[in-house]
From TrEMBL, chain A:
Membership in a protein family: Belongs to the RNase PH family.
Residues annotated as domain Exoribonuclease phosphorolytic: 47-231
Protein name: Ribosomal RNA-processing protein 43
Entries under Pfam families matching the protein: RNase_PH
Cross-referenced InterPro entries: ExoRNase_PH_dom1, ExoRNase_PH_dom2_sf, Exosome_comp_Rrp42_subfam, PNPase/RNase_PH_dom_sf, Ribosomal_Su5_D2-typ_SF
Compositionally biased region (Polar residues): 31-53
UniProtKB/TrEMBL annotation, chain B:
Name of the protein in question: Exoribonuclease phosphorolytic domain-containing protein
Taxonomic lineage from the root: Eukaryota, Fungi, Dikarya, Ascomycota, Pezizomycotina
Subcellular localization, as worded in the UniProt entry: Nucleus
SUPFAM superfamilies linked to this entry: Ribonuclease PH domain 2-like, Ribosomal protein S5 domain 2-like
Matches recorded under InterPro entries: ExoRNase_PH_dom1, ExoRNase_PH_dom2_sf, PNPase/RNase_PH_dom_sf, Ribosomal_Su5_D2-typ_SF, RNase_PH
Similarity annotation: Belongs to the RNase PH family.
Highest taxon above the source species: Eukaryota
Amino acid sequence: MATSKSMTLSSTTFAKLSPHPYLLANLQPADPSTTPTRTNGRQPSQTRTPYINTSSLSHAHGSAVVRNGDTTVICGVRGETILTSAIPNYRAPSPSDDSSSSLDEARDYDLLVPNIELATGCAPNFLPGVPPTTLAQTLSTRVYSLLHSSKLVDVSRLRIYPEEAGKENKEEDDEKMDEAEEIDEYAVAEDKAVKAYWVLYIDVLFISFDGNPFDTAWTAILAALRDTKLPFAYWDADREMVLCKPVFTAKEKQKKGSGSYWILVDPDRLEEGLCDETVTVVVDKLGRSTKILGISKHGGTVVGPELTKKMVATAESRWEQIHAAIE
Amino acid sequence: MTTTTSGPEALLSHLHSADGSATFSYAGYTIIGAVNGPIEAQRRDEIPEEAVVDVVVRPAAGVGGTRERHLEALLQSTLRQIILVTNFPRALIQITLQVTVAPENEYVNTKVVQANTNLPMLPALIQTAVLALMSAAIPLTATLTSVVIAATTEDGSNRDIINPTAREIEKSRSLHVFAFTSHGDLILTQSEGEFTMKEWEDILASAQQQCCPNTSGDVNMGDDAATGADLGTFTRSVMEAKIASDLYWK
């Protein structure tokens, strides 16, 4: 509604009506005393500070969340094994042509599989139920070619050897995929034939999208690959399959017979999953004396008659609590 | 009024395709148990550090319902405690219990599918499972003995009935199932009805006397409550007889 006062517009209206002149007006202010700033308040060469959080996905071998302003990307890396016998036209790498040959194992056998998804709702122009947008496909291609051309991942660490050869390089046990080039120290291992490879599935998901997707996606891939820990894998000749040494074992579990126990009243889901023995007591305190309507105990021998008595007392106080809440 | 006119009977290793089997009859119940294990567990079920114990209970008539699932859950968590599960990581020990004869209450209409708990059957199921596990040579830390006791009021006085009939259970005030390990530890308690802590402790004491006569110091006073068979000794003698007959050719 134009009033007679003046033809001033609020900055948001200006930005909507003619975005390009609006950006230029900010970059080239009419008043030379004011410093040129961008519409978002940043200096022309000022970047947004990235925030990186790694290992946030529990089921990936490596993961990272990168936040760069309002662009947020999550990247998960998952390793799977492929047998060399399952690779068509497989040619065993010889130790001599490791650096300079035409053979590029990662590219030829597709050992790195990046995929980029722009989640519905991460920005207004991404609609649900449509095939991957041009942007997503473009980004996938760019990431794929950069992964290979940069030789980011040392392919020799993706090879899986028969057990005896693998034992000689122990440091693979908790392997860190590092972008730093590793000196080739697997000469011993290489006289054994490669039996299988790790294939890294690198999935990148944009949670929110506010520009600069490639940079943020690549940062996430770098952080996730750095975070990636693969279990030590070896080829078992007897079973003719790839086996992994477990990274995590539940040995921390307390052994039976240690004698100590804890009684957890009103357990949550986690506690319920970890406890063996459960006791349920149903009491009715409405009358003069407490009536027990049911006792159910199973799964262990810790709770004897004495503890059961204590449980009944606990149930009685719980009854008071519930009674007060209902009334 | 006693139902235990005949003592417990058991038949071991009579199913040839199962790793271990037992048929157990006592107090009106006959149950066939079969144990297979350790066998390969399904990938999604397996536990990395211990064996999965799977219990299947099939009723005498019809297909299993919620009641059988409840019994299975109780048996599973109890048997897991006595089987040396850490000896068989990622394996499966499957216990199948088929009820063939169950006592019926002539006073009420029997339904094939019943949702309420079926505690009286529990001791027979436990006993069959333990015998079948031993027949399959699954290493156990202990054996189990179990008893069902009904508390009734007769002519103003309280009376505990060991191994009550269906009719006695119907008329009872409360029904209790206890299971003890051969070390004398209380491993399972299921009590229904209406009772006080004092009554429960008394019933527990008589159950203990019934299940582990050697560990409790009390002398059998000869009252009609304590008429059940000594299942611990029974289990031992059945196993001894079986081993003796298996080794007879030597």
